[in-house]
Amino acid sequence: MSPQEAQRKSRLLRGIHRTVTGLHPALESLMAAVVGLLVGAILMKIWGFKPWEAYRALIQGAYGGGYELSNTLAWATPLILTALTFSMCLRAGMFNIGAEGQMYMGALAAVCIAYFVLPPGIHHLVGLLFAATAGALWSLVPAALKLLRGVSEVISTIMFNWIARWLGLYLTLNILVDPIRSEKSVSIPTSARLPVLVEGTSLSYGIFVSVAFALVIYFLLWHTATGYELRAAGLNPTAARYGGIRNKRTMFLSFILGGMAAGLAGATIMMGMPPTYAAFGGFPQMLNMGFNGMAVAMVGRNHPIGIIIAAIFFGGLSSGGGWMQILAGVPLEMVNVVMGAIVLTMSIPELIRVFPAIKNGTYKLIRSLRDGKGKAVEEGST
Q1: Distance between alpha carbon 218 and the CA centroid of its chain, in Å?
Q2: CA 243, 235, 353 angle in degrees (round to 5)?
Q3: Rounded Cα–Cα distance for residues 37 and 60 (Å)
Q4: Cα(107)–Cα(143) distance, integer angstroms
Q5: pLDDT in tens, 44-82
Q6: Band of the pLDDT at 17, cuts 50, 70, 90?
Q7: pLDDT for position 19
Q8: Which residues 6+ apart lie within 8 Å of 42 measured at CB?
Q9: For 170-210, how does the pLDDT look when each residue is reduced to its tens digit (9 = 90+)?
């Protein structure tokens, strides 16, 4: 690499690791987690609950044993993939809010494999490939609308979420309906269900699918020229275009990869977590998984490895929240308030880094506070 190319690369990617406090992103996230836990403790204390007992119950219910940890990882499995859906597009400068709909399409594709008779192993692979393809195809239309007609991907992907939801309901009740039980779709055959890792839990081999896909995305983003182009296009589109990077191609690729991740999320739920069918009303077991993935991506700093850690943390909140109610007597409404405070606090550093308006305002505030402190010191010394 020539010195000019190295300088251009440094200029394009400058600011990727810049944080609000100037600390390492991992340390900054840890500090944000501590602040979030303190905020949650204050809220519980104000309303008369015992925060330390509640947090002890939360940790016990999330990570207190093999059964609890298995449930935590089961919740984390689809969240890793839906977080990657949002993260991949955000890296390319796009806001893909359509993980929910793309996940529904992947789930429907997984249900369709019930009509095939294939041996185990091959049946698993076919189901995962069908789901990934369905999610990618569902993401093509919003991508094309954005790149060819300039339609906001935020609006189009949200609309496609609703289309996917009602299309899934129609197919469940009219096309994929179980001939014996009309309130549900046909079930995933045993030969296509992902094996359960821990008996009595929902943890299946889907966790390996999620982690493997995250590692593939990590290698793509940080160890290939295509990944460099994708990150550069999202960081500074004008400079990337000047450097010869085709922004439209990278944006299109991010949508395809994001759709594949969401489709696989639907497959890991449908093929690995009971019930292994779509019920009347669609997919209640997938409710808000796509939108929760956005929060996981923010907490994980839009980095595949960070997303894995953040998803396990979110899984712990989901599985341990019930224990807060049972052991500490914290009502569900307060549990949700505490969880929201923790997640919001941990998301703030990445929100500041990603959104220019918030970032510029924060840096101006920090500079004004720093300059004001310096002036106060000078006046005191005189």
Answers
A1: 14
A2: 160
A3: 16
A4: 21
A5: 999 888 899 999 999 999 998 889 999 999 999 999 999
A6: very low
A7: 58
A8: 51
A9: 888 888 888 888 778 888 888 888 999 988 888 999 999 99
Please report, for residues 176, 278, 279, the alpha-carbon distance to residue 179 in angstroms, rounded to integers and kept in the order given.
9, 14, 13
String of b and e for 85-121 (b: at least 16 CB within 10 Å)? bbbbbbbbbbebbbbbbbbbbbbbbbbbbbeeeeeee
Q: What type of residue is 45?
A: K
Q: Give me the CATH topology for the region 40-373.
A: ABC transporter involved in vitamin B12 uptake, BtuC (1.10.3470)
| 247-272 helix and 122-149 helix, angle to the nearest 10 degrees | 140
Tokens of 40: 């949650």
In the chain, beta strands by DSSP E: none
8 Å CB contact between 101 and 290: yes
CA distance 27 to 240: 30
Nearest to 95 by CA among 304, 294, 237, 240: 294
One-letter amino acid of 128: L
Phi, psi of 184 (to 5 degrees): -145, 170
| Tens-digit pLDDT profile for residues 244-270 | 777 788 888 999 999 999 999 999 999
Q: How many CB atoms lie within 10 A of CB 362?
A: 17
Q: Is the distance from CB of 312 to CB of 73 less than 8 angstroms?
A: yes
pTM of the model: 0.85
Sort 367 into a burial class: Cβ within 10 Å, 0-12 / 13-18 / 19+.
exposed
CB-neighbour burial class of residue 272 (10 A; exposed 0-12, middle 13-18, buried 19+): buried
Lowest mean pLDDT among 140-149, 247-256, 289-298, 361-370: 361-370
3-state secondary structure of 340: helix
In whole angstroms, give the CA distance from residue 5 to residue 15. 18
